[in-house]
């Protein structure tokens, strides 16, 4: 994943620029230091100092032309809010006000010079008050700019701003329409477009019919795609391997042709054109694609968001069975999961699914469990006001090797609250049965993403 592209704008007062050249020189030096500091978190487009409406407008023109994902405002000194307000009211670039300063500590030798060089906070207060009154959305982080927690917080915001920008340009490919009568994600694509920006590409039967004459992979291409330890079921032939990798290559080619970065596939709608690409999807998830089962474009977009926020360490999943005694939940689906998240201490088992519930075209399903550790479980649901909401929870993936009898990807999760409470609260919030699982604790990134997009974001 590429780094976010972020604008940094330093702010001061016209009066200081006109009357105190030495102070301005020091503030410019601080602005340059901020650029260098945050270059580790993002590709920086730097406008060192603005001091009136004209320079603020010029700065944002530069940021727009550079296609930045977000802008960080830093009050190098006091700067009045009304030089910023006209521009901030019309921009659609996410804004972060970073409340920081050059000085870390006030010591006994603190002087008037130190005070004049470190008094940006009342500019922050002036601007924040005005923006709230004018209903202009902004994020705010307060902290010393060299502190690791501040750097981490800013990095999370930059990542979220990048995800907002990326999803506005994203295309979700849907094959086979949506599963009949499955209502929890039965929402119009226009809602996804209006709230998040992602658009839907409906793949036609004519497009799928091209699979028949699509060139099969070579033996080397099969081996390259399956570059991990595998235990093959005896029913699987080399032809089955070729067909499954062919579907992977075919969908990748469709992705390239249409600019698709996430897929929503309904196994009931594949016709006689193509096998259900369980293995192919699991390999695409490994390459940071989004995915949603049963033609669910909303969970597909959510998985893509989680992939962006974790640099490809996310997957699609469902809750299936509750372990009430141990407060755990068994997670699985028909055969799609990110192979990049698999446990490395056991081989991936490959089974043949004859797809009796679908088009009866045999297809390979990988079976494995996920590396144990801390994860974030995420859902994108609709609400009664025809809006979207994000529901998320910190959970633990339990250290459990694959169950011998299971022939799909699977794992156990343990919520941080009793499983009864978790499941009740989840459904009372309207959580759907399709979810994203993201490696690590990404709640701060999700909260920033939800805030920037004006999506209600709820933690269980």
Largest sheet: 6 strands, antiparallel, barrel
Radius of gyration: 25 Å
Q: What is the global morphology?
A: elongated
Please give the order of strands in the largest beta sheet: 11-12-17-16-15-18
- The tally of strands reads 19
Instruction: Give average pLDDT, whole number.
Output: 95
As a percent range, the share of helical residues equals 25-40%
Structural class: alpha/beta
The name of the CATH topology of the largest domain is: L-fucose Isomerase, Chain A, domain 3
**Any low-confidence stretches, pLDDT <50, length ≥5?**
none
In the CATH hierarchy, what is the class of the largest domain?
A: Alpha Beta
Distance between the termini: 29 Å
Please give the domain count: 2
Strand content: 15-25%
The CATH architecture designation of the largest domain is: Alpha-Beta Barrel
Assembly classification: single chain
What's the tally of helices? 15
Question: What can you see in these coordinates?
Answer:
The chain is of the alpha/beta class. The chain folds into 2 domains: 5-168, Rossmann fold (3-Layer(aba) Sandwich); 171-459, L-fucose Isomerase, Chain A, domain 3, CATH 3.20.14. The protein is 36% helix and 24% strand. It has helices spanning 14-19, 21-38, 53-65, 85-90, 112-116, 121-133, 148-168, 189-195, 205-209, 219-225, 238-258, 278-286, 297-310, 419-428, 443-452, and strands at 5-11, 43-50, 70-75, 95-99, 139-142, 171-175, 199-203, 230-232, 262-265, 290-293, 314-323, 328-332, 348-353, 363-367, 373-382, 388-397, 410-415, 435-439, 456-459. It is elongated and about 85 Å long.
């Amino acid at each position: 994943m590429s780094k976010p592209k972020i604008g940094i704008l330093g702010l001061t007062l016209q009066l200081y620029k006109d009357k105190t050249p030495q102070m301005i020189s020091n503030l410019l030096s601080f602005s340059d230091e901020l650029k260098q500091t945050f270059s580790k978190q993002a590709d920086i487009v730097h406008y060192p100092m603005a001091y009136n409406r004209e320079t603020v407008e010029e700065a944002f023109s530069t940021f727009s032309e550079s296609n930045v994902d977000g802008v960080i405002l830093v009050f190098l000194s006091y700067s009045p809010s009304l030089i910023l307000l006209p521009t901030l009211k019309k921009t659609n670039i996410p804004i972060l006000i970073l409340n920081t300063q050059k000085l870390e500590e006030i010591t006994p030798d603190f002087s008037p010079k130190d005070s004049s060089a470190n008094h940006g906070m009342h500019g922050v207060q002036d601007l924040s008050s005005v923006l709230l009154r004018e209903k202009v959305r902004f994020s705010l982080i307060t902290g010393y700019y060299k502190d690791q927690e501040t750097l981490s917080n800013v990095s999370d915001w930059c990542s979220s701003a990048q995800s907002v920008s990326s999803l506005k340009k994203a295309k979700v490919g849907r094959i086979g329409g949506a599963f009949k009568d499955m209502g929890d994600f039965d929402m119009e694509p226009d809602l996804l477009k209006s709230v998040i920006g992602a658009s839907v590409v409906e793949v036609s039967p004519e497009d799928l019919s091209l699979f028949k004459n699509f060139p099969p992979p070579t033996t080397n291409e099969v081996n390259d795609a399956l570059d991990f330890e595998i235990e093959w079921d005896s029913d699987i032939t080399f032809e089955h391997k070729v067909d499954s990798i062919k579907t992977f290559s075919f969908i990748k080619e469709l992705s390239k042709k249409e600019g698709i970065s996430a897929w929503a596939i309904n196994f009931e709608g594949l016709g006689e054109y193509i096998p259900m690409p369980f293995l192919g999807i699991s390999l695409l998830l490994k390459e940071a694609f989004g995915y949603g089962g049963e033609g669910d474009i909303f969970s597909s977009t959510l998985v893509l968001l989680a992939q962006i926020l974790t640099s490809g360490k996310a997957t699609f999943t469902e809750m299936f069975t509750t372990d009430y005694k141990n407060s755990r939940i068994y997670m699985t689906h028909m055969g799609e999961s990110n192979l990049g998240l698999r446990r490395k201490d056991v081989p991936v088992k490959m089974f043949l699914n004859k797809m009796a519930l679908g088009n009866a075209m045999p297809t390979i399903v990988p079976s494995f469990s996920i590396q144990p550790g801390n994860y974030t479980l995420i859902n994108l649901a609709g609400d009664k006001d025809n809006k979207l909401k994000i529901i998320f929870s910190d959970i633990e993936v339990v250290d459990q090797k694959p169950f011998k009898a299971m022939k799909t990807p699977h794992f156990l999760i343990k919520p941080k609250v009793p499983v009864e409470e978790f499941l009740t609260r989840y459904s009372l919030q309207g959580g759907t049965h399709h979810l994203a699982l993201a490696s690590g604790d990404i709640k701060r990134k999700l909260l920033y993403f939800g805030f920037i997009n004006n999506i209600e974001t709820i933690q269980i």
